Automatic annotation (TrEMBL):
Residues 493-522, 756-781 are annotated as: Disordered. This is Ig-like domain-containing protein. Residues 447-577 form the Ig-like domain. Residues 1-27 form the signal peptide. Keywords: Disulfide bond, Glycoprotein, Leucine-rich repeat, Repeat, Signal. Residues 756-767 have a biased composition (Polar residues). The keyword Repeat applies.
Length: 787
């Protein structure tokens, strides 16, 4: 934002102009030349370059008396003096009568002296030609009415770095031609709209550095010609909706180094012609959807040096048709930019994202920026996986566009490509991103919640509102939910195109609570058996993208909160301990923390077997607390043999698990290991007792044996037996014609007996199949010993 710095940052204005701009311009101009006049003792008289407020070059006769420890004005001064420099002396009173004879005096520099009253400068004869007056770093404490009335054509007034505590409403009366006013870095606590009524032509106003925590509504309404306004370093916590009303010509605005916790969207919408906006070094945590909507002429935007910025949401910067440069740098906690954060930025050419905590820049972002020419991603912990395929060397930083069935390739230049390195995965660590091929990157991405997005501990006062931000990028896109200290699971869902939150946890029966506000309607669905935690549900609200809001927090909401990001490939978790502090002055230190910690680490759960089959078992458990490090282990049990133990991680908020791929007819022992996270270090006897594993033993069902013959129902069985008897009788009868009659009768009786026994066997086998197989005596003893 180099063009904006000249207008926005008063602290750097003179430095940049004198050290960069002026030498470059002056280097191409004729050097200073001697001025052959009678010069005051120890002063230097030369013809030097000088620039007007409109940057017009002049050859100015200059008398330079800087750094001479003068206590009075040096005399005599050459009558044609144009610029008089008296910086860094000991002047406290100035005889303006000696200056009245200088009809060409245009620029007077009295900075870094000892003036305590402006009237000591202007009480005598007027200075009709003076255009620029420097009074920085003096001892001015108050400006009276009409303090500068003897300077009728003054265009630039520098009063910064004084001790100004008050300014009379008519202090600037008579300055009808003033273009630039610098009153930054003083001790003003309020901004009076009356000051500016006498400044109809003012174009630049520097107010930063004054301890003003709030701007009045319509405070600048008289400044119809103002083009640049600097409000940096004032301690502003918010900006009223009408604070900037009336600034019809404003093009440049700086809120640098304030205490803003959100973008002043409503106030900015009153400034329709704004082109340069500086929000650097504020306390903004989230750039929300539509924060800059309606700023049709914005060209450059700075969102740098924000210690608390963690996320840029969907459509946070949308419909900015003239934005050409976007700077989002040096934000140590910024780890998430939504894939659709930048929408309809058709002219964006430069995107600066270096020195953040970004793991990737989603390829959807690149697709949404058709005019992008350069991007800066160095000094980020970049994760070189599926989300970063667009940047690999085999793509040659090319972005392909399709327009009217024609394909064009547009190259995007990387700023400092040598410092743009992979941090993950381990096999690609410290590799330059542009040297990695797409084949070396994974085709899918596990969810990762950056450590910078959530601190390990957050303290808040009772009754305040708390926002916990959790973000994750992956492919497929992960789903996020929260688990509260009482075990409630808060997950986002969509119902009737409204933003909503679904909560499941230990509550009696299924209940639906509705919460309404001006923007959306939240639906909370609750399921469980204990009503105790549910009385605090009104305090919770799950916002879009994974932010948990706790309103009017109480001691009951203190404890461990866990965010879970999950997709089809896996999951990641991150926990934060919330401590609630009392507002009472005589409260005992640490009382709130102990209460919240105890609630978080007290583990209680009972493991139950819900259903068992031949190859699976469904287990469930309930807990009134958040257990983010829970594990489930299982082992096959055989006497006189050691079998391996298998373990799986249980995500926080999970109360049911389907154990599959088990062996049929086998004894198993399953244990639930309750965990509270690595951040808790307490080892009380109660804690050790509560962390003992909960176990259950069972035997899987047997797979039914496959019968060798046909499986018939009872009716078909009786029919088959009858036909079998008839066949045997006929067979025996046929054989009886060749034998004795007594032998034939015996054979017939024997065949009928065998058929009858066979039919009984079939019927008994079918009855046995209908009943579950009961364990034998040895199996019963073995199961009794295990349990």
């Amino acid at each position: 934002m180099r063009p904006a710095l000249v207008l926005l940052q008063s602290q750097c204005l003179l430095c940049v102009f004198s050290s960069v701009c002026v030498p470059g311009v002056v280097g191409s101009l004729p050097p200073a030349m001697p001025w052959h006049v009678y010069c005051p003792a120890r002063c230097v008289c030369q013809i030097k370059p000088w620039f007007s407020s409109d940057s017009v070059y002049h050859e100015a006769p200059t008398v330079d008396c800087n750094d001479l420890l003068l206590t009075k004005l040096p005399v005599p001064l050459p009558p044609n003096t144009h610029t008089l420099r008296l910086q860094s002396n000991l002047l406290s009173v100035l005889d303006t009568a000696a200056l009245s004879g200088l009809s060409n005096l245009t620029d007077l520099d009295l900075s870094q002296n000892r003036f305590s009253h402006v009237r000591m400068l202007t009480q005598s004869s007027p200075l009709p030609s003076l255009l620029s007056l420097h009074l920085e770093e003096n001892h001015l404490s108050h400006l009276h009415n009409a303090s500068f009335s003897s300077l009728p054509v003054l265009q630039e007034l520098f009063l910064s770095h004084n001790n100004l505590r008050s300014i009379a409403p008519g202090a600037f009366f008579g300055l009808d031609y003033l273009l630039r006013l610098h009153i930054n870095n003083n001790r003003l606590t309020t901004v009076d709209p009356h000051w500016f009524r006498a400044l109809p032509r003012l174009e630049v106003l520097m107010l930063g550095g004054n301890p003003v925590d709030a701007l009045p509504e319509k405070g600048f309404v008289a400044l119809k010609s103002l083009r640049s306004l600097v409000l940096g370093g004032m301690g502003l916590r918010g900006v009223a909706e009408k604070a900037l009303e009336g600034l019809e010509s404003l093009e440049s605005l700086s809120f640098y180094d304030n205490l803003l916790n959100k973008v002043p969207t409503q106030a900015l919408r009153r400034v329709l012609g704004l082109k340069f906006l500086d929000l650097n070094k504020n306390h903004i945590r989230v750039i929300q959807t539509g924060d800059f909507r309606g700023m049709a002429h914005l060209k450059e935007l700075g969102l740098n040096n924000m210690e608390e910025l963690v996320s840029i949401e969907k459509a946070a910067l949308d419909d900015l048709p003239e934005l050409t440069k976007l700077e989002i740098t040096n934000n140590p906690r910024l780890s998430y930019i939504h894939p659709q954060a930048f929408v309809q930025l058709s002219r964006l050419e430069s995107l600066m994202l270096n020195s953040n905590s970004l793991s990737a820049l989603h390829h959807h972002i690149m697709l949404s920026l058709p005019s992008l020419q350069e991007v800066s991603l160095h000094s980020n912990p970049l994760r070189c996986d599926c989300l970063f395929h667009w940047v690999t060397k085999d793509t040659r930083h090319a972005h392909t566009e399709r327009k009217k069935d024609t394909q064009t390739t547009r190259a995007v230049r990387f700023i400092q490509p040598q410092a743009t390195l992979c941090a993950e995965p381990p096999e690609l660590r410290a590799r330059r991103v542009r040297e990695v091929s797409s084949g070396e990157m994974s085709a899918s991405c596990l969810p990762t919640i950056p450590a910078s997005s959530l601190p390990s501990y957050v303290g808040v006062q009772e009754g305040d509102k708390l926002l916990l931000h959790c973000r994750a990028l992956a492919d497929p896109q992960p789903e996020l939910y929260w688990v509260t200290p009482s075990g409630l699971r808060l997950a986002a869902s969509t119902k009737n195109d409204s933003k909503s939150s679904t909560i499941t946890g230990p509550c009696r029966n299924q209940t639906t609570l509705e919460q309404s506000d001006s923007s959306n309607k939240s639906v909370l669905q609750l399921q469980s058996q204990d009503p105790t935690p549910c009385q605090h549900l009104k305090h919770y609200k799950l916002l879009p993208e994974g932010t948990l809001e706790i309103r009017k927090i109480t001691f009951s909401e203190a404890g461990l909160y866990t965010c879970v990001a999950e997709n089809a490939l896996g999951a990641d978790t991150r926990s934060v301990t919330v401590g609630v502090h009392s507002r009472r002055k005589n409260r005992k230190k640490g009382a709130a923390n102990k209460k919240g910690t105890f609630q978080a680490i007290r583990a209680d759960a009972k493991l139950e077997l819900r259903e068992v089959g031949e190859h699976y078992a469904i287990l469930s458990w309930q807990s009134r607390h958040n257990l983010p490090s829970t594990r489930l282990s299982w082992q096959v049990i055989f006497p006189n043999s050691h079998m391996p133990t298998y373990t799986t991680r249980i995500l926080a908020g999970t109360h049911r698990f389907n154990l599959t791929h088990l062996q049929d007819g086998t004894f198993y022992k399953v244990c639930l290991h309750l965990g509270i996270g690595d951040s808790v270090r307490h080892t009380s006897v109660l804690l050790k007792e509560s962390r003992r594993p909960r176990c259950v033993s069972f035997r899987t069902n047997d797979v039914p044996e496959i019968q060798a013959g046909l499986q018939l129902d009872p009716q078909l069985t009786s029919t088959a037996v009858t036909l079998l008897l008839l066949a045997l009788i006929l067979l025996v009868a046929g054989q009886g014609w060749d034998s004795e009659p007594g032998d034939a009768l015996k054979k017939s009786h024997h065949a009928v007996h065998q058929a009858t026994e066979a039919s009984k066997t079939v019927v008994v086998n079918q009855k046995m199949q209908k009943d579950p197989k009961q364990p034998n005596q040895s199996e019963k003893c073995q199961l009794h010993q295990i349990c």
